[in-house]
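#struct-pred

JT: dropping the chains for the assembly here, can someone run the whole complex?
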Amino acid sequence: MTGCYDFCGHYEWTFEWLRQQGGHELVKAYWDESINQDSQVHASTLITAKGFEGMKEYWGPTLADEGAVYHRTVTDDVFRIDMHECPSKGFLLRNGLKQYADYCDHCMGWIGPMMKGAGFVVDHQHNHCGQCWWEMRRKEDATAPSAPGELSGAEDVRLRPGWLRDEPVDTYQRATEPDDKTTA
Amino acid sequence: MTPPVTPLPYMDTKPHGHADFYFAINATFRFILKRFGLEALRRYWQDMGAKYHQPVGERWRQGGLSAVAEHWRAFFAAEPGAEVEVIAEPEEVRLEVRTCPMIKHLREHQREIVPCLCQHCYYVSEAMAAPAGLTVLISGGNGACTQRFLRQTANQPGQQLDQIKEAA
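RK: done, full complex below.
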């Protein structure tokens, strides 16, 4: 049986299997069609119907069940997550699993299209070491992403001593799809 | 520090997996089936068994049927909602799956289940078992089944796919 305990392992392995079958476009189609539109349809239903309230209802229990260490900041205009210990990337790092070039892209791969459908855009960075941050705003809201500490104070993951390491940081600005990033 | 030796090659910090990941497993099978057809889906399962699960197959090759039993006991202990008895006998290890956790969770959440989902247990496990000189025979499915892990022999009848029920 294919289990949920080591799900992140065979999920990451599947990205590379799909890439070898049909290239990068197939992997992106998988994240959107299979994860966003099928597996996580409960998330898009909640968030499309309830906006920021739906994001709270979805990510609250989900990140708790997954064992994430994170901080959430919600205002009338923005939903922010500071992920201090990503359970998914953490599983891969602890177990030495890496088949696909950038596992972290899968989150924008399904969350991006979901947010686009619900009328939101995303500012996001991930450091490939299990830390990242997200800010979701309505697409009509042109507010720039917050400066470090501005929204979440001392919980801002960018203030961690280990935020910048040898790994590059990927940056998304007002994005809704996984290739819309810069790497530095 | 030497890592602990456990029956599972990949360890998490929490004792159980997150059951909603079963949604993604079912959806992944559906995606590959729709895009590429049943033979490609079976190849995906075989590749997963032979490659991703290669460390398990290697443990089975070294430890034989007792390693098979240890693996499945640890595996199902980490799957939320599983009700499975692992019976170790001299000539086989038998899994009596009384409640398949994946089918249970998909049903509880009214998810459309890929009809051939239960075949994946055969294709993945056979690919894990073959390098260890073992084979698997499955009967039942759709929420409960029997899985027998046996040593390969020349006159061993192979899996009949019609012995595996469609899931719904």
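JT: nice. The interface with chain A takes residues 8-14, 16-28, 30-31, 35-36, 40, 44, 47-48, 51-52, 75, 78-80, 100-102, 109, 120-121, 124-125 of chain B (CB under 8 Å). The domain at 21-163 of chain B is CATH 3.30.1380 (Muramoyl-pentapeptide Carboxypeptidase; domain 2).
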